[in-house]
Amino acid sequence: MAFDISGSGERYDVRYAWRAAPILGSVALVVMYTEAMLVPSLPKIQEEFNVTPAEASWILTIYLIVGTISAALFGSLGDIFGKKRMLVLVLSIYSVAVTFTGYAPTFPLLLLARALQGLGMAMFPLAFSLIREEFPPEMVPTAQGIVSAMFGVGIIVALPLGAYISQTFGWRATYHTVTPLAVLMTVLIGTYIRESRYRTPRRIDYLGIGLFALAASSLLVAVSEAPNWGWASGQTLSLFALAAASGAAFAAQEMTAEEPFIPRDILNRNVAAATVAILMVAYAFQMSSQNLSYLFEMPPPYGYGMTILQTGLYITPMAVVQIIGAPIAGRLLWRVGAKRMSVAGVALAVAGFQLASAYAYSGVWRLIGYMSLGFLGLALLNVSLINLLTFSVPRNRLGAATGLNTVFRNFGSAIAPAVAGTVLTTFATTAYYSLGGFTAFFTVPSRIAYSMNFDIATAMFLLSLIPIALAREVFTGAPNPRGPAPIKPPKAPIVEASAPRHAEAATGGAAAGRPST
Fold first, then answer.
1. Which of 100, 118, 201, 452 is the most exposed, fewest CB within 10 Å of its CB?
2. Mean pLDDT lowest for which of 21-35, 98-112, 136-150, 175-189?
3. pLDDT for 331
4. Residues in a beta bridge with 438
5. Which residues fall within 8 angstroms of residue 13, CB to CB, at 6 or more apart?
6. Is residue 1 within 8 Å of 489, Cβ to Cβ?
């Protein structure tokens, strides 16, 4: 049954919406579970295939490149052909890819499987868009907060479990555990999730897609490989130049095309603010993860001398903070407002990261406490920014808008390891280990390197206040910020049947941006 309980004139099946939320949220859980489990396995993969660290880095780079392109591509295709249809397609390919990754016999085939896995990033914009469509506006922030919390759940489960499985059964076994989860998720979404209410049939901008793919891939390869090639090397500078030229050509194409790849009507101030700010937030998150991994695992007195498994366990409290904080933030968003919550998130993140910068060696639990404060700020920022975005575009453009947001998030995630790694390498010191008259010297990051990375992340948080300040508030107060109150069904309830939906879609109702219910 579907009722108009939000006062907007639109009908929503709330019981279906709450059933759909955990299913769609499992997208974030499975993808984060897969990627977080991969990190502890990278040294073993490098050893098995006898490749260099630079070659092994492509295991992450190729996934990021394909994921960035596919997020924008399938987000737009979801607006055209239906978000559920595209989500099931991407999930089916992803299920095959994770299965093949676990059995890849050679390194080139492993990279091919990882490239196909990159399509998994397209699940995020599609899932977020479907949630925005099916939930009454008052309940969307809470649902988005629940989905955001799934990112933390995936990390909590994957880091210690992935390290244990990799050490005990081999790195391939980590992927064998993912396959049944990916298949189950595909079946559940294909069976229980309804197709999009809103679609926008239009021609596909193949030239725009090609130019975007060239610009994005050139930029990501340049940033990812710069620490290995050198930031001023000919290869790096050539790729930056290619990215700039193809990016300019893409912008020109999008401004003149009749039906551009990135619809011009989504490029408002809120979309610009959310996408630029999420790049900075993603940078800070990725940098902190890398910085903490080195700080926890480097030998004393330069670090805390932990194993990979211990590192995963000690990072767990920070993920728990996100799991708790994100749904609460979503629940309060109508009352507080997206802009105010974003500012609160920046304040908490700056405080946590600066305390970590100043007192990184004051004890592991104090450091975890400081970083947990920072991660709470990250949770508030993630929830407020995604809702600022999704409430600022027509719902028949949600796929394109959330896809663009994912692209900028990926850019931030790609820049962070390159910059953080360069800082850790540049500001290094020489350590030594003596045993039985034998002394071994090795290079480790210095204390100032960790502080510098935290300070750069702090600067990114502060810079994010500029686009946030320029945004227009979308939450101006609701009758009930906790969501619509329960109501009694009307005597003659409106049944949301599938036949009228398809009939209206066929006659162009969905194309006009009306709910096809």
1. 201
2. 136-150
3. 85
4. 435
5. 1, 2, 3, 134, 496
6. yes
Cα separation, 281 vs 461, in Å, equals 7
User: Distance of CA 361 to CAs 161, 365, 371, 428, Å?
Assistant: 27, 10, 13, 16
**Angle at Cα 60 formed by Cα 118 and Cα 414, nearest 5°?**
90
Q: Which residue has the tokens 């939906």?
A: 501
Distance between CA 99 and CA 103 in Å, rounded?
7
Contact present, 375 and 321 (Cβ < 8 Å): yes
Task: Find tokens 């940098």 and name the residue.
Answer: 287
**CA neighbor of 268 nearest in space, from 475, 474, 515:** 474
Rounded mean pLDDT of 7-24? 74
Distance CA 299, CA 293 (A): 12
Res 427 pLDDT > 50? yes
For 301: left if phi > 0, alpha if psi spans -120 to 50, otherwise beta; the answer is alpha
The closest alpha carbon to 35, from 228, 289, 368, belongs to: 289
Tokens (6 digits) for 256? 């003149």
Phi then psi dihedrals of residue 442, to 5 deg: -150, 160
Output the six-digit token pair for 498.
Answer: 């599938």
Q: Are 290 and 417 in contact (CB under 8 A)?
A: yes
b (16+ CB within 10 A) / e for 195-234: bbbbbbeeeebeebbebbbbbbbbbbbbbbbbbbbeeeee
Tell me how many degrees the CA angle 361-367-368 measures, rounded to the nearest 5.
Answer: 150
Model pLDDT, residue 434:
59
Q: How many helices (H) and strands (E) does the chain have?
A: 17, 2
Tokens of 407: 């692209």
In 296-310, which positions are buried (b, 16+ CB within 10 angstroms) versus exposed (e)?
Answer: bebeeebbbebebbb
Who's near 205: CB < 8 A, 6+ residues apart?
253, 254, 257, 259, 260, 261
What is the per-residue pLDDT for 479? 41
Instruction: Return all residues near 340 (Cβ < 8 A) that are at least 6 apart.
Output: none
The pLDDT of residue 504 is: 35
pLDDT at 476: 62
Peptide bond into 486 cis (omega under 30): no
Nearest to 335 by CA among 288, 384, 289: 384
Per-residue pLDDT tens over the stretch 288-334: 888 888 888 888 888 888 877 787 788 888 888 888 888 888 888 88
| Structure-block tokens of residue 338 | 């997206």
